[in-house]
Design a protein that fits this description.
Blueprint lengths: L3 H14 L9 H13 L3 H11 L4 H4 L2 H5 L14
Length: about 80
């Protein structure tokens, strides 16, 4: 059995050893999670999202923040991504 202090040290070491890229989601990852979320919406939430998004689906718009990141006119919205 690993002691809690050793577990913490091991966890911290792994965080520094594993490349940061492994923590990011791809476009496919965003869309999969958005599809799962969309399927679990209540009828009321689904209706509200439909009013906001119109013809777009939740998976389709899930990568929007990644696509607009290069537009410096929208830098004010960077914190919305997280």
């Amino acid at each position: 059995m690993i002691k809690p202090s050793n577990f913490l040290i091991l966890t911290l070491l792994l965080c520094f050893i594993i490349p940061c890229k492994s923590f990011s989601w791809s476009e496919k990852g965003h869309r999969i999670i958005a599809k799962i979320a969309e399927e679990r919406l209540s009828a009321k939430a689904r209706k509200g999202i439909k009013e906001i998004l119109g013809k777009e689906s939740l998976p389709q718009v899930s990568t929007w923040m990644d696509f607009i990141r290069s537009d410096h006119n929208l830098d004010f919205s960077n914190s919305y991504h997280y």
